[in-house]
Amino acid sequence: MREDLNILDVRRRLGRMVWGVPQPLILFGVDDGRTWRIDHLREPMRILISHDLYPFVDEADTAGGPWVHASISHRDRMPAYEELALLHRAVWGDTGWSYQLFAPMSDHVNIAEHALHLWGRPDGRKLLPNFGAGGTI
After folding, report:
1. pLDDT, tens digit, for every residue of 67-87?
2. Rounded to whole angstroms, what are the CA distances from 95 to 53, 90, 98, 122?
C-alpha cells in the first residue's frame, strides 16, 4: 500500500501543460516538505495539498496515520464538480477514496471563500477519521 504522496505524479495526472510546477508552501515561516501549491497556468485557480499524520481514528486505525488534505480554489468563484473530481483523480487515482467534510457551523473554519476540500489516506483506503480529534477541523 502506498503511504506517501508523490507530488510530481499528482501534477502529471493534472496535466503538465496546464498546471505549474509544484511549489513548497511555507507556513508560519517553515517549509515542512509536506505542503504543496500548484497553480493553474491559464486560470486563477490553485491547488493546495498537504500530507501529514493525524491522531487515532478508530479501532481499525489505532496508530493514526498519514492523511492527505487537498483543496482546489478559484479567486472569484467556487470550483465546479468536474474540477473537484479532477483533483480527486490526480491525488487518489481512479480506485482510491477521498471525502468531502461538512462540519457544524460551530466548528466551521473558512480561510478561502472559493475553495473545496478533500481528505483521504495516501493509499486511498476507505476509512473515515475523526478530523476534530486534534481540536480543529
Report:
1. 899 999 999 999 999 999 999
2. 22, 11, 10, 12
